[in-house]
Amino acid sequence: MKLLTVARDLGRRKARERQQLFVAEGVRTVDELLRSTLSIRGVLIGSQFDENPRAAGLNAMIAERSIAVERVDFREFASAAQTDSPQGILAIAEVPSWSLSQVELQSKVRLLVLDGVQDPGNVGTIIRTAEALGATATYALPGTVDLWNPKVVRSGMGSHFRHPCIVGTWDELDSFRASHAVAVWGADAAGTALTKSDAPDCLFLVVGNEGAGLSAESRARVDRLVALPISSAVESLNVAVATGILLYELRA
Amino acid sequence: MKLLTVARDLGRRKARERQQLFVAEGVRTVDELLRSTLSIRGVLIGSQFDENPRAAGLNAMIAERSIAVERVDFREFASAAQTDSPQGILAIAEVPSWSLSQVELQSKVRLLVLDGVQDPGNVGTIIRTAEALGATATYALPGTVDLWNPKVVRSGMGSHFRHPCIVGTWDELDSFRASHAVAVWGADAAGTALTKSDAPDCLFLVVGNEGAGLSAESRARVDRLVALPISSAVESLNVAVATGILLYELRA
Q1: pTM of the predicted model, to two decimals?
Q2: Chain B residue nearest residue A133, CA to CA
Q3: N- or C-end of chain A: fewer Cβ atoms within 10 A?
Q4: A245, B244: Cβ pair inside 8 Å?
Q5: Residues in A touching B228 (Cβ below 8 Å)
Q6: Do B240 and A245 touch (CB under 8 A)?
Q7: Which of A132, A231, A235 sits opposite B231 (nearest CB)?
Q8: What is the pLDDT confidence band of residue B101, given thresholds at 50, 70 and 90?
Q9: Angle CA(B202)–CA(B205)–CA(B207) in degrees, nearest 5?
Q10: Are B29 and B43 in contact (CB under 8 A)?
Q11: Binary contact (B132, A159; C-beta < 8 A)
Q12: What pLDDT was estimated at residue B104?
């Protein structure tokens, strides 16, 4: 099938989940992808890319890895792009298959669990932050935006290609807990104030939806609710900012 | 002049600066504005607002404050709105006139200085974070996106209406420094690692542009560059996340 057709199709979550493929769009994201170990199926280039100052460098990397290239005109490219002003380059790559069992090998664990976080920009920023601050993996529960949504990938700034991103359920987390000493903390304004000395060796940190917070399912499973002390005038911190502070304070 | 015309005009930064007015759009933002002490010139309501479950509550608050209301059809409303799916309510209010002299009264100061931060969502989130974490004020240097840009206001989630937001230059900051013992720190990956015990009583914390970081002008003025320790695989944290962690670590 033509890459253009595949790229358009991968705009839908169902297609991404069925094919276990995703689209990385834009110079910066494709550059990070080319430097990663992920399997790249092909690169779609629109005519607008030719004027990009980084075209020569990227084309050389693509040629070096012998990756299939399909060239289309700028209008066709725009039909597959998810950005308003496409830079004219996107790559189709395989979703890496990380699993919880790979987490088991480590002595200190910081598993960031996303419970219904919905905004693609927030989730991409969270994945970037999780990698930067040394989280073991990011784990998305049902109700969370697809981690491989093109906007999430773009906001991730390349972190998706290195940091383990796992999609799963509470049942799987419970199985892991059954054989490991794991503390499960949920971020919630009604929680006890975080103190640095608290940090356990193996921690699941659960952060909830932008508006509704943690789900009932998560509330039922956490050992403790933790809060960041903030001004009473403000309802909450942005979820990516709160996650950043929590991961920083709790870094292993 | 009709509110509809004013609201459309205020989409441009020049108009906002000349008139010292801004637009707060959407149920949540207008609700926060109505609860604040800011002067509201009027409210524009589109027909799509009538079906909003929070319409009755907001209409009552507007009536109680005797604020001028102008009703338009949903198409006219959309022509003044900055969102893709307008909720049908916006308010026009006066930009509050905060100044550095109001900062002087406090014994502990955390002045957050934005040096060319460009993304409206980032800046709105930063203002929300600054208020939540007790920063004294947020100060925007030239090159920073307009703090009263409708997208910045929306991302601020109401913090603009309570937290002092100041627009100014390095010259004005220098004048303040001439008569106060102020430490000026810039956030930069090449800086020394932040330690909590460092925090001085009176601090200007400067954060730079998403891509380019601090300007040459800011680099020339800071006493110290501070960094957050992050994985070498990641180039940087998102500026709102980094600001959140720094303000949390350095809170007075």
Answers
A1: 0.95
A2: B230
A3: N
A4: yes
A5: 248
A6: no
A7: A132
A8: confident
A9: 175
A10: no
A11: no
A12: 72
Contact residues for B8 (Cβ-Cβ < 8 A; gap 6+): B79, B80
Cα dihedral value A172, A176, A181, A183, nearest 10: -20
Query: Tens digit of pLDDT for each residue in A41-88?
Result: 999 999 999 999 999 999 999 999 999 999 999 999 999 998 888 999
How near does any CA of chain B get to the CA of A59, in Å? Answer: 23
Contact assessment for residue A124 and residue A152, using Cβ atoms and an 8 Å cutoff: yes
Strands A89-94 and A21-25, by their bridges, are antiparallel
Taken in order B232, B215, B100, B239, the sign of the CA dihedral is: negative
* E-strand stretches of chain A: 21-25, 40-46, 69-72, 89-94, 109-115, 137-140, 165-167, 183-193, 202-208, 224-227
Q: What pLDDT is stored for residue A199 in this prediction? A: 84
Chain B environment of A157 (Cβ under 8 Å): 234-235
Residues of chain B contacting A231 with CB distance shorter than 8 Å:
131-134
Distance (Å, rounded) from C-alpha B237 to C-alpha B242? 6
Which chain A residues are within 8 Å of B26, Cβ to Cβ? none
Q: Please indicate whether, in this complex, the C-beta atoms of B131 and A234 are within 8 angstroms of each other.
A: yes
Could you tell me the two tokens for A119?
A: 């905004």
- How far is CA A187 from its chain centroid? 19
Closest CA to B118 of B248, B240, B19: B240
B207: chain A residues, CB-CB within 8 Å: none
Residues of B in contact with A132 (CB under 8 A): 230-231, 234, 236-237
What is the 3-state secondary structure of chain B?
CCHHHHHHHCCCHHHHHHHCEEEEECHHHHHHHHCCCCCEEEEEEEHHHHHCCCHHHHHHHHHHCCCCEEEECHHHHHHHCCCCCCCCEEEEEECCCCCHHHHHHCCCEEEEEEECCCCHHHHHHHHHHHHHCCCCEEEECCCCCCCCCHHHHHHCCCHHHCCCEEECCHHHHHHHHHCCCCEEEEEEEEEEECCHHHCCCEEEEEEEECCCECCHHHHHHCCEEEECCCCCCCCCCCHHHHHHHHHHHCCC
ipTM of this complex prediction, to 2 decimal places:
0.94
CB-nearest to B132 from A121, A128, A230 is A230
N residues, chain A: 252
Lateral strand order in the sheet of B202-208: B165-167, B137-140, B109-115, B202-208, B183-193, B224-227
Which residues does B contribute to its contact with A (CB < 8 Å)? 121, 125, 128-129, 131-134, 157, 159, 162, 228, 230-231, 233-238, 240-245, 248-249
Of B131, B242, B244, the CB nearest to A233: B131
